[in-house]
Amino acid sequence: TVLQGIILLPLRAVCIAFLALPAWLVASIATFRHHGKGSVPLKGWRRRMIQTALSSLTRTLFFIMGFQVKVKGKIASLLEAPIFVAAPHSSFFDAIISALTGMPSIVSRAENLSTPVFGTILSSLQPVSVSRQDPDSRKNTVTEITKRALSRGQWPQVI
């Protein structure tokens, strides 16, 4: 089993890299020439592309890493729960929840948006950005989450 681990580890790393590239491509296409840059929600084919393609790629990625997740019960719809909480969010396991729930918007540090490859993927989820340098950031974040929650389905769910 140790030998299997030694062989499978590099193979999994290669698979992760090959799944990150199509995810970046999907995110780039879905946000290409979108005039809002986070201030206007993605709609139509752009939103469906993010929900289906990125969700499928993320699920595949976690399956390759050895995670098999089963959902018990019914996931709340956007109109039932415009905001839902995943806690404690201290690891990459939040991505599993995102994939299972149709790639909702997230609350993220503004610095994460400038990360190569993953910044583009993150931007396609239309995150609520939090800036640690801005003293009004906490108030602005609450205002933005409230605006999205009261949009009656215009914005995706916020996790």
Notes on the protein architecture:
With 159 residues, the protein is mainly α. The protein has one domain (1-150). The protein is 49% helix and 4% strand. It has five helices and two strands, in the order H-H-H-E-H-E-H. The chain has helices at residues 2-31, 44-64, 94-100, 118-124, 137-149, and strands at 107-109, 128-130. Helix 1 (2-31) packs antiparallel against helix 2 (44-64) and helix 1 (2-31) packs across helix 4 (118-124). It is globular. The model has no long low-confidence stretch (mean pLDDT 84). The chain crosses the membrane at residues 6-32. Pfam families: Acyltransferase. One of its GO terms (biological process) is lipid metabolic process.
Which key phrases capture this entry?
about 160 residues, mainly alpha, 5 helices
How do the helices and strands line up, and which of them pair or pack?
Layout: H1 2-31, H2 44-64, H3 94-100, E1 107-109, H4 118-124, E2 128-130, H5 137-149
User: In the residues, how many domains can be counted?
Assistant: 1
Strand content: under 5%
Query: Based on DSSP secondary structure assignment, what is the total number of beta strands?
Result: 2
The N- and C-terminal alpha carbons lie at a distance of 38 Å
pLDDT < 50 runs, ≥5 residues:
none
Subcellular location: Membrane
Protein name: PCAT2 acyltransferase
GO molecular function, one term: lysophosphatidic acid acyltransferase activity
GO biological process, one term: lipid metabolic process
